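Give me structure tokens for this 126-residue protein.
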Amino acid sequence: MPIDHLTINARSFDQASAFYALLLPELGFEQAKHGIWRNGAGLYVQLREARPDTRDYERYGPGLNHVGFRAPNRAFVEELATRLTEAGLVVRLQSFADGTVAAFIPDPDGLRVEVSWYPESVPPVD
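Here you go.
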């Protein structure tokens, strides 16, 4: 059963919306309406404003650690990192010994978005 949507609560809806409006179209998403994007596989990403009385995001606390997308090839990841950096986003591009290449992009609240390409023999998680 595939995942059909991901909802991200953001401390600042406007900052998060600007970030995801730059990133998600690069990953094949189109804006369905304000704060909602969808891709051709039927995955929706929705942004919501976090309640003011809640704690800030903690990457290593309980809950979601990061969101990972699989890139079609190595060049896609490298070119994406260049475009996003030129657009003003913080991107860490990393190559691994097994041939994997990944771009790590933190959103305004610190939620890490990962875009990776893996050689055929390498699983996305280990």
